[in-house]
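Sync notes, pocket subgroup
Present: LS, DG
LS reminded everyone that the earlier model was apo-only. Rerun requested with C2E included. Inputs:
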Amino acid sequence: MNRHPDQGVYMNNTIKTQQQPDLPLNHSEQLLHELQVHQIELEMQNEELQRARAALEGSHKRYCNLYEFAPVGYLSLSAEGEIIMLNLTAASLLGVERDTLLKHYFIDLVAPKDSDRAYFLLKELLRHPGEQQNFELMFKRGDGQFPARLDCLSLMPDEQPPVLRIILTDISESKRIEQELRIAAVAFEAQEGIAIIDANKIILRVNQAFTIITGYSAQELVSQPYTFKSARHAENFYTNIWDCVERMGSWQGEIWDQCKDGKNYPKWLIVTAVKNDAGSLTHYVCMHIDISERKASEEEIKRLAYYDPLTTLPNRRLLLDRLHQALASSSRSHKYGALLFIDLDNFKSLNDNLGHDMGDVLLQQVAQRLISCVREGDTVSRQGGDEFVVMLEELSEHAEEAATKAKVIGEKIIHALNQSYRLTDHDYQNTPSIGVTLFINHQLSIGALMKRADIAMYGAKAAGRNTLRFFDQNMQEAVSARAALEADLRNALTKNQFQLHYQQQAHNNGQIIGAEALLRWQHPQRGSVPPLEFVPLAEEIGLIVPIGHWVLEAACTQLKQWENDQRTRHLQLAVNVSARQFHQPDFAEDLRELLEKNTLNANRLKLEFTENLVFEDIEDTIAKIAILKAIGVSFSIDDFGTGYSSLTYLSQLPFDQLKIDQSFVQNIGIKPADTIIVQIIISMANNLGMDIIAEGVETEAQRAFLAFHGCHNYQGYLFGKAVPAVEFERCLRR
Ligand code: C2E
Ligand code: MG
Ligand code: MG
C-alpha cells in the first residue's frame, strides 16, 4: 500500500489521539488497523470532496444560466471599447452571434443617429471610474432598429480588464405603450366630451370638451356621480340606458340633458363598458357629442317640410300624416272625425286687383281666424293657394251627432271669415265655401276622403258660395258624371262635334238686324248638350280657348257666306267670348288675323261678354277693346244687371251695346223690382249713348213694355229660337 507523504503526518496527528484509550495490540496488527481506519477516513473525505465539487459545479451552472439567460443583456467592454464578454441575451437582443460580437467595437452596434452621442457618453464614463450612469440609445438590429436602456458601470483601474460593464434592456414595448398613452391622451382631449366613470358611476376624469358642453368645471365633476337631467325623458329612460350597457356592452343614442345654466340641450351619447381580464366591469367611457346645431337644422328642415311658410300652419303633407293617425285612433275610439275643406271665394280677384302681397296678408289672417275656431287638438292646415283643411277629431260615436258638431264649427268658421279684414289700408270682405265629410276607421282611403271633402266644397260653391255642404252620394255621382263629360269634351273638337246655332235679333220695325251665335255640342250618346252644361267646365279646364277659337272661325265663315247674299249681307253676328279666352295675351291679334284672312268687314262682328270678364282685368279689357274697335269690331255687355258692374268703369269703357239679362225681362210685370231695373237699364244705356237689346223676350207684353220704355231691339223665343244656319236662312226668306 502506497502512502501519501502527507498522509503519515495527518495520520499521526489524528489517529494517535483516537487510539489512546485502546487496549495494547501487537505492532503489525496495530498498523493494519490504523491503515484500515485511515482508508475509511480517506474514502469519507473523498466523498465529501466529490459532493463539494458537485455543489460547486451546480452553482456554476446556475450562475451561467442566470447570466446567459438573464432578461437583460450583460456586456463588458475593454478600455478601447471592444466587447470582451457578453451574455446570450445581449447577443440575441442585438441579433448577432455571440462569437461575432466578441472583439467587436460596441459603438458600431449603435444606430447612426445616436452613435456620436454614445461615443461621448461612453468616453465620459471611462474618464470617471466608479461612476454609474444610464441612458437610452437606438441600436441596429437586422434591417431595423430598437430602443434600449443602458445601465453602465465604469470599473476601477485595478480591476481592468474589463473597464466597463453594461446592462442592456430592450425598451421597445414600453416605448410603444408610452406612444399609445400619448395618442390616448390626445384622443381624450378631442372635440367630443368624454367622461371616464368607475363601475359605481362616479366620475374619474373628464376632458375639456366635456366641461364646455356641460358648463361644469372638472373640479365640480370629478368624484361626483355621473347623472343626466331633463324633463324631456321619463326616469326609466336613463335606467334603460344603463341596463343596455350592462347587457350589450354599449349604448348610443340621442338624449336631452341640462347644462349648468339650466338650459336643455340635445346630445348624442355613446356609453361603452370597460371590462378587466376577468370579464368584470370596471369603468364606463361616456362620450358626449353636441348635436344642438344638427338638431336645429333638422328642426328647420322639418319645419320647411311640414309647415306652410306663409301661415306657419301644417301643410298638406303633415295633414295627411295626421289624418292617417286620426283614422287609426278613430278605429280605436269608434268616434267620428270630420274633414272641412275650405276654399276662399273670389280670392283670385283679390290677388289680381290688390296684388299678391295683400293676398298673403289675407291668407295669414284667415289662418289665425281658423285656429281660433277649433279646439287645441284639431288640425288647421293650408293646402296651398286659398285652400285650407280643418280636421276635427273625436266628435262623436254617432254620425248624426258628429255631423251636427262639424256643422256648428263650419258655421263658426263661415261667420269668422265673413268679418271684414283689415289689409294694411284696405277693408276687405271675403267669404268661404266649405265642404265637409265625416270619417271613421279606415273605411275609405285618405285620398278618397280628401276627394270627398273637395267634392263637397265644390257643392258649396255651386250652391252659391259662402256656405257649407256635406258630401253626399249625389255629389259623388255628379262628380263622376263631370269627369266623364270632361273626358268627352276633350275629344269633341277633333271629332267635329260642335256646331253653331243662330238666334235672330230683331228690331221693333220687324226687321232682322242680326243673330247671336250659340254653341251646340252634338254628343254621340247624350245628343245635343246645352252650353250651360259644358261651357263652364271648358272654362275651368282651359279648353274654352281652343273651343272659343273654333267658334270665332265658324262665325267668320258664316259671315263670309252671308256677305255674298243680298238678304243676309247686312246681318251683324254676335259671338260670345269667355273671360279666359278674351284674356289670352294674343286674343286681339288672333282675331284681327282671322278677320283679315277671311277678308271680312269687321263691322259685321260683335263680341258679347259679361261684366265679370271686364272686372277680372280692367286694363287688359280696355287695351283689347281699343285694338279691336279700331278695326271695326263692336262690343256688347251680355247678361247685363247680373254681375257687379261699377258704373264708373262702365261709362269709361267704349261698349256699343247693353244686353238686358233675360231674368229681368221675364219678370216684367211679375216682379216689380225687376220691372224697375229694366226701366233703369234702358234709360242708363240711352243716357250713355249706348245701344240696347233685351234677351229672352217671350211674350208680346214684354216686347210692348220694352218698346214703351225705349228698348227697340229684341232677342227671344217670341221671334225665334236658336237654329242651325240653314233653318235660320229659311226663316229670313219667310
Ligand atoms: P247667353 O249668351 O246669354 O245666350 C242666351 C241664352 O238664352 C241662350 O241659351 C239662348 O238659347 C237662351 N234664350 C234665347 N231666347 C230665349 C227665350 O226667349 N227664353 C229662354 N228661356 N231662353 C232664351 P244657350 O244657347 O243655352 O246658351 C247659354 C249660354 O251659354 C249663353 O248665354 C252663353 O253665355 C253661353 N254660350 C253659348 N254659346 C257660347 C259660345 O260660343 N262661347 C261662349 N263662351 N259661351 C257661349
Ligand atoms: Mg250671349
Ligand atoms: Mg245672356
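DG: The chain has four domains: 68-177, 189-296, 311-471, 487-733.
LS: The chain is about 50% helix and 25% strand.
Action: DG to write up.
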